[in-house]
């Protein structure tokens, strides 16, 4: 049977470290579901695995495009399915790991992503419109064209709003009607990590401080020296945007750090809209309960159960 284990949850909760340990025990490889870790040269601010961790367990879909390359959900979806199939073909366990709800559910729910090529002129015109009238008016336009798609998009996410309008225009069909679903070709176990909100915020704040110590400011300076503009979508991510404001003299470093923490807290609240604690598809574990042994037991039962199902299917019927 083709098994897939997804490890999901809010940023900073410990998904990557758990995945590393599980991959070692269950002969697995990790497929990243992080919309920022796809970019090269952006290591500290995206909390990428270290070189030692990358050498220990094979990781996929990390460092695959440059910060100024266009990268869409459709591209990720195609690459992820191909990668998962390849891992399973080699009799290894695929671990889908990340906090990007859009990426995670597109794989687990078998979304059919519209293959609509980018319309650069259309995007430019909408970006100009945002500069003139603001992002709220653009979001309202999407609400009128496709209210179902709009409800799934943060109104502050101009890039996704433009893409939804772009797809609807070029396909002459609302994006929400094009995003059909079909059963994915694997059995999935979804493990969710969570924590008390105050404890999670404390962990996040410590991680932001550690990113600064590791050289996040220097990393952003290097990106600028390589020619990557702050207006690029890749550079708009939490951490990079605020450090950019510091480098341009718009914020003090202390204020930039505080903004990173605040925006990460807000992002966590948004992630819980994707990963709901009452979603019975997700097996939730609180990190304060030291539940790793229970997670390993659940995973072992999942693999053995599916193997038994396969053996039953392969037994020929009596003559």
Walk me through this protein's architecture:
- Helix 2 links the parallel strand 2 and strand 3.
- Helix 5 packs across helix 8.
- The longest helix has 23 residues.
- The protein is 54% helix and 10% strand.
- It has a six-stranded parallel sheet, sandwiched between helices.
- The C terminus is likely disordered.
- The protein has 319 residues and is an alpha/beta fold.
- It contains 14 helices and six strands.
- It has two domains: 240 residues, 3-Layer(aba) Sandwich (Rossmann fold); 59 residues, Histone, subunit A.
- The relative contact order is 0.16.
Secondary-structure map:
Elements: E1 3-8, H1 15-26, E2 28-32, H2 51-56, E3 59-60, H3 73-89, E4 93-97, H4 101-108, H5 120-133, H6 135-145, H7 147-151, H8 158-171, H9 175-178, E5 187-194, H10 197-214, H11 216-225, H12 240-247, H13 253-274, E6 282-286, H14 292-314
Parallel strand pairs: 1-4, 1-5, 2-3, 2-4, 5-6
Helix pairs in contact: 3-4, 5-6, 5-8, 6-8, 10-13, 11-12, 12-13
Throw out a few tags for this protein.
single chain; 319 residues; Histone, subunit A; 2 domains; 6 strands; globular
Largest sheet: 6 strands, parallel
What is the CATH homologous superfamily assignment of the largest domain?
Answer: P-loop containing nucleotide triphosphate hydrolases
Structural class: alpha/beta
**According to CATH, what is the class of the largest domain?**
Alpha Beta
Q: Could you state the order of secondary-structure elements as H and E?
A: EHEHEHEHHHHHHEHHHHEH
Number of helices, where a helix is a run of at least 4 consecutive DSSP H or I residues? 14
Q: Shape, please?
A: globular
Task: Tell me the fraction of residues in β-strands, as a range.
Answer: 5-15%
Count the domains: 2
Write down the oligomeric state. Answer: single chain
Number of strands: 6
Radius of gyration: 21 Å
Helical coverage, percent range: 40-55%
Q: Termini distance?
A: 25 Å
